[in-house]
Design a protein that fits this description.
Radius of gyration of chain A: 19 Å
Strand content of chain B: 5-15%
Largest sheet of chain B: 5 strands, mixed
Low-confidence stretches of chain A: none
Number of helices of chain B: 7
Oligomer: heterodimer
Strand content of chain A: 15-25%
Largest sheet of chain A: 5 strands, parallel
Low-confidence stretches of chain B: none
Number of strands of chain A: 12
Shape of chain A: elongated
CATH superfamily of the largest domain in chain A: Response regulator
Helix content of chain B: 55-70%
CATH topology of the largest domain in chain A: Rossmann fold
Mean pLDDT of chain A: 85
Largest interface: A-B, 23 and 35 residues
Distance between the termini of chain A: 22 Å
Order of helices and strands of chain B: HHHHEHEEHEEHEE
CATH architecture of the largest domain in chain B: 2-Layer Sandwich
Shape of chain B: elongated
Distance between the termini of chain B: 53 Å
Chain lengths: 225, 320
């Protein structure tokens, strides 16, 4: 992937750039808004990471400008401003995702991959999501394994749908909270883990890790088989 | 003070003479003038003596107040109070009010002290653990994850503290919107149901459509924190009941469980930051959950009441 990272905190920039390069991505970096905007408009990237507060041109203006030029490159905003209001503002001007500092590198990677996938045009509108012998029908909202139907609740359906849509990618707990539950909050207990374990029980009582694997220290993954 | 009294006396005297003469010029004979002179000297003396006494009274009291204040500043001992030896004058009233203010400041300072102690303790322990583990340079993947979890815990506490102070500053009330509170309550219950299922607990729900103006995410957090506590402290096979009721202008959410309740003596402390009952220090949690609940409700102008209703605990949120 070719990634542009615009961030004025040089320490963070270096940490992010180094990590992304180690994973085999090509990274261009800019430490101020003016350079960042120049790169964003003159080069072609798969994903752009931009800080909200920047010297020169601020992050939101950069997004507005490139969107104004009909450039649809996915943009991930990161910022120390974590309140919901700020997220909404960032997404409204055309950002695709919002990550609050400080963030874990695994969280950043998971989100970049999700963004890159979103950018790929869907060949046709999917009606069934599948992995291994599991089929999730989006129209009838039914889950089946080897053609045997497994009763599933609304939340479990949404969880599985999100995981299947991001098949082959790590999905973090925060991503699940934001996209499956649509609330921004901090659960005091790791309730998400309990939801996942119930879902696993339903899919396969004998070997619960059968479909949804835990990636320690990061989140969950349904492997692309 | 003294000079003002003297001046006022003189002016009234001059004015009274002036008016007397204008009304009846015939009085201007010698005898009248003599008696007038004596009268004025006597009244001036009287004013002077009275004024002196009043000013001595006032000055000594003010000085005494200043001395006490000085002492408090120098020693930092907030338990000192101004002496009050009479009830009738304004200065004693002022002293009384200032003493009340000192009471309040003392309580607040004790609170700050307590929070600093607990913050120091709660953050120092994980930091120390972290440091010890980092000393060993060869980390296995397993240990690395443990370290990351430790840091995550710290970040969580800091984040909770920050959002607490942001809520308490009241800035967030500018973005209040009308939202479906019934849905938020039902969503929060759905979110926690698997946790209750694992403990074989049942959650009974009794809601009614309700719209509320406020911050939807913060309210979700409120219900989530209370449910989290209820599930945590209610034993297996317990029962939790969530109800929204509306009696005229008294909309209320109650969350009742049949757990052990809270010892009566610590029921007021549960909202304090970092407060954890002795029995729960083993359980996970930051001790900030209910502080956050209270701050959010205060921001919305709502009230919360926690009471023991044996068997169990009843948390009521008064929305209006």
């Amino acid at each position: 992937m070719r990634i542009l990272c615009i961030e004025d905190d040089t320490e963070l920039l270096e940490y992010v750039t180094k990590g992304l390069i180690e994973m085999g991505h090509t990274v261009d970096a800019a430490t101020n808004g003016t350079d960042g905007l120049y790169l964003a408009t003159s080069e072609k990237y798969d994903v752009i990471l931009v800080d909200r507060m920047l010297p020169g041109v601020d992050g939101l203006t950069i997004i507005k400008t490139i969107r104004g030029a009909e450039n649809l490159t996915p943009v991930l905003i990161f910022s120390a401003l974590g309140e919901v209001d700020d997220r909404v503002k960032g997404l409204r001007v055309g950002g695709d995702d919002y990550l609050v500092k400080p963030f874990a590198f695994s969280e950043l990677i998971a989100r970049i991959e999700a963004l890159n996938r979103r950018n790929r045009p869907a060949v046709e509108k999917e009606t069934t999501l599948s992995a291994k012998d599991i089929q999730l029908n989006l129209l009838t909202r039914k889950l089946s394994r080897e053609d045997i139907e497994i009763p599933i609740q609304t939340t479990e359906f949404k969880l599985l749908e999100y995981l299947l849509r991001h098949k082959g990618q790590i999905v973090t707990r925060t991503m699940l909270l934001e996209y499956v539950w649509d609330y921004h909050f901090d659960p005091q207990t790791n309730v998400i883990d309990v939801h996942i374990s119930h879902l696993r029980q339903k899919i396969n009582k004998e070997s619960p890790q059968y479909l949804i694997k835990t990636v320690r220290g990061a989140g969950y993954i349904i492997e692309d088989s | 003070m003294f000079a003002i009294l003297l001046a006022v006396g003189l002016i009234t005297l001059c004015l009274s003479i002036f008016f007397l003469i204008r009304q009846n010029p015939n009085y201007l004979d010698y005898g009248f003038l003599v008696s007038l002179g004596i009268a004025s000297i006597v009244s001036l003396l009287l004013v002077a003596v009275l004024g002196y006494l009043v000013s001595v009274f006032v000055v000594t009291r003010i000085n005494r107040m200043a001395n006490t204040a000085n002492e408090i500043i120098k020693t930092g001992d907030l338990s000192k109070r101004l002496t009050i030896d009479s009830r009738w004058d304004d200065l004693s009233y002022l002293s009384g009010v200032l003493n009340e203010m000192l009471d309040k400041i003392e309580i607040l300072m004790e609170g700050v002290q307590h929070i600093t102690d607990t913050v120091a303790h709660d953050l120092r322990t994980p930091l120390a653990r972290l440091r010890n583990k980092l000393e060993k340079s060869d980390q296995s993947a397993e240990e690395k994850i443990a370290l990351i979890q430790e840091v995550d815990g710290l970040l969580k506490t800091f984040n909770a503290l920050l959002s607490l102070s942001s809520i308490e500053s009241g800035r967030q009330s500018t973005k209040f919107k009308s939202f479906d509170l019934e849905k938020v309550v039902i969503d929060a219950i759905a979110f926690y149901t698997p946790l209750a299922q694992d403990k074989e607990q049942t959650i009974e729900v009794e809601t009614l459509p309700i719209n509320y103006v406020g911050d939807r995410d913060l309210f979700f957090q409120v219900i989530a924190n209370i449910l989290d506590n209820a599930i945590k402290f209610t034993p297996e096979n317990g029962n939790i009941k969530v109800a929204i009721t509306d009696s005229g202008n008294n909309r209320k959410i109650t969350i009742t469980d049949n757990g052990p309740g809270i010892p009566e003596e610590s029921i007021d402390k549960v909202f304090d930051r970092f407060y954890r009952d002795k029995s729960e220090t083993q359980k996970e949690g930051s001790g900030l959950g209910l502080s956050l609940v209270k701050a959010v409700l205060k921001l919305h102008g709502a009230k919360i009441k926690i009471e023991n209703t044996p068997p169990g605990l009843c948390v009521s949120i008064y929305l209006d």
